[in-house]
Design brief:
alpha+beta
């Protein structure tokens, strides 16, 4: 039995935390100290906790980060953040999946999470194929699929994509529309209202503080060179769509973060064209684009039609998931009933 200690990551642990993220197969820009602390600070109600798993020589073998909101003392709830795999377990490079060390670190982190949260749903990084240590502790894990493109050979990929039905009219769109790489902060003023419009169309709930939080995060990422915005406009300047990508150098992946678009202008095929433009324009150092899961069947179908690869990852829930969901559903139904009966 390994002698492991799990404790909260402190300010003095910043350098070893970033070393873990930069070296780990599960590392991404979202988890680096500066990024995740800016994310937390941009929204007043958001809190951050990070757990580190240390061996007896105080070597950091793994970790896990959580952004959450505290609704009541000790009642910590999970917000919607759109940060891919940000709460995934992170293992030090060299720890082999299936090994005793791997199982011990995964279970030590899981025990800490169970004590800290009544309920949490964890997106495990796609590199984590062995979730047996979580299952052995009573966690529930189900497969899900992210949509990705491998962009090592972009010319070959674009040739392949243009043969698919979704891209049948993409060349015409590329010719009569204007595409651009937007690098100035002015793009934020166009992006936020357009994204709110897109979210409303699909009944995606956005909190009252989302706009200000988004602005702070984007301003910081633009200043650090961690985000790219690609736009599609009509030749008269009418904005049709904005795709943005968070540039994660630890894993050489560009994460499609938020997509905003206008469907009321009568234009078709501009979204596939915008994706093609993005594939061509992202910096050469990135080898993969991850545009996340589809959330609902229609979006899965749309992303599949774009010629993406289906990349398996696991969603794991703490053992109390079913009990917590029953309580949540009961409270939600009571609140809805109170609204119906109020004058």
């Amino acid at each position: 039995m390994m002698d492991l200690t799990v404790r909260e990551i402190s300010a003095s642990d910043r350098s070893i935390w970033d070393e873990l993220i930069n070296a780990s197969p599960q590392g991404s820009v979202f988890l680096l100290n500066d990024c995740i602390t800016v994310w937390a600070a941009s929204e007043p109600a958001l809190q951050l906790v990070r757990f580190g798993c240390f061996d007896r020589s105080n070597q950091l073998l793994g970790g896990q980060a959580f952004l959450y909101k505290e609704k009541a003392p000790g009642v910590r709830v999970q917000p919607i953040l759109n940060m891919s795999y940000s709460c995934s377990p992170i293992l030090a490079r060299g720890i082999d999946q299936g090994s005793q060390e791997y199982s011990a670190v995964m279970q030590a982190l899981a025990r800490k999470v169970e004590k800290y949260f009544l309920y949490f749903s964890v997106e495990c990084h796609p590199s984590l194929r062995d979730v047996r240590p979580l299952l052995q502790r009573g966690w529930r894990a189900v497969p899900d699929y992210a949509h990705t493109w491998e962009i090592n050979d972009r010319e070959a990929l674009i040739t392949k994509l243009c043969c698919k039905g979704r891209y049948r009219h993409v060349n015409a769109a590329l010719e009569h529309l204007v595409f651009a790489d937007e690098t100035g902060v002015a793009i934020i003023d166009e992006f936020i209202p357009l994204y709110k419009e897109s979210a409303h169309r699909y009944d995606v709930e956005i909190g009252k503080t989302w706009g200000s939080a988004c602005r702070k995060r984007v301003e910081w990422m633009l200043a650090q060179g961690l985000i790219r915005f690609y736009t599609c406009r009509k030749k008269d300047g009418t904005l049709l769509g904005i795709a943005n990508y968070v540039l994660s150098r630890p894993d050489r992946t560009a994460y499609g973060w938020l997509l905003a678009y206008n469907l009321s202008c009568g234009e078709k095929d501009f979204l596939p064209a915008l994706y093609l433009y993005s594939i061509q324009s992202l910096p050469a150092e990135f080898q993969r684009i991850d545009i996340a899961e589809g959330i609902r069947p229609a979006l899965y179908d749309f992303k599949d039609s774009l010629g993406t690869n289906s990349t398996l990852f696991f969603r794991a829930e703490t053992p109390s998931a079913r009990t917590w969901k029953r309580i949540y559903d009961t409270l939600r139904n009571l609140k809805a009933a109170a609204r119906r009966t109020s004058p």
